[in-house]
Amino acid sequence: MAEYYTPREIVEQLDKYIIGQGKAKKAVAIALRNRYRRSKLDPKLRDEITPKNIILMGPTGVGKTEIARRLARLVNAPFIKVEATKYTEVGYVGRDVESMVRDLVEEAIRMVKNQKMEMVKERAAQAAENRILDILLPPKRKRAQNPLGMLFPVDHPTVEEHEEADDSMAHTRERLREKLRSGALEDSPIEIEVEDSTFASFGFIPGMGNEEVLIQIQDVFGNLFPKKRKKKKTTVREARRIFEQEEAQKLVDMDEVVEEAIQAVEQHGIIFIDEIDKIAGRETGVGPDVSREGVQRDILPIVEGTTVMTKYGPVKTDHILFIAAGAFHVSKVSDLIPELQGRFPIRVELEALTKEDFKRILTQTENAIIKQQIALLKVEGVELEFTEDAIDEIADIAYIMNQTSENIGARRLYTVVEKLMEDISFNADSLAGQKVVIDREYVRNRLQDIVKQNDLHKFIL
After folding, report:
1. 77-102 residue pLDDT tens
2. Of 278, 260, 257, 277, whose CA–CA distance to 269 is shortest?
């Protein structure tokens, strides 16, 4: 289990996806390990220990969000990322801060439900197979009883004839089952009945704050009335997927799912609040803008620990781990209200990426950009190779662009690589079966417009 990882092992796992930022990784690793330690304590003491929330400070594109996302995946914990700027002060139209907890519960239910469905996968597949066989070879219906049979007798098949017919039907069904399992019927057309998910909804105006109310109303009305069925023409392959989904849902106990999901949220949930620096700072007193300090005060009780009502029941936020992040270019952490600052005792400043970091991001991470490009072109039958000096040049150009224009961190690499690969990607179909080598000269020729536009090299000291 990932929750049993030591802090050092957690950092090693994060190193596979995020380059550098050792301080931030160390802080989140300790926070995660403390959750495991807390779970082993006496219940009386356990309730007294609350998570030590973290603020990550640093420019965009240096790994703040990725650290939190990978951390949640590592322990399979409910995780959501929210933007602080989406929330508005109570009394204004917009999303209220409690919606972040409701969103986390929905995510947890999705996770637990998927886990439960995976556990009943084999049973669901068997039931789906039987449903397909019933459509391809409908079972023999019993003959209706004739009320005038006593007066007008008719000849009926004998018991032996019935047994022969049943044996023949069973034999045919098993042969059809063998064909179905061998994949011979995957593309055969079939007509099935599926649930009609269309719902005549009320009109609403996006962004006016009534989307959540509408969704809840739809849930209520959807559960009041029986599900409608409609016929759909599809293939056996698609029918199997639909039936497996339906059968798995029938086998899953939703009450159990909700109970486990709420438990997971309260004990292991992680909420990542991005752009928290945008709601920091004092008010100017000019204009009708929603009070930034008011939003902070609304977030405060959620972080401190409160009970939020959801459609699945009350959820306590006392032990949810909050990780906040922001660039803090204009404002400072000290510009947040003191009460909110006190709820984020751990503060870590992430470092700007160096040229060497860019090189490692291009090649060393599990999802490295160079690996992605090679895999994409391999689909077209093109063998792509990047030389060492080409990678140096890409990293150099991306680094200088960040220094001379807006610093967008590792995201700059995507801009540079996409521009570099533009012609090759466009003509990939005609390059099938060939090997394409990208060297320093090719990089400079393709990206000379960017270099000239920024006049980069004159800024190098």
Report:
1. 898 988 888 876 655 555 788 889 99
2. 260
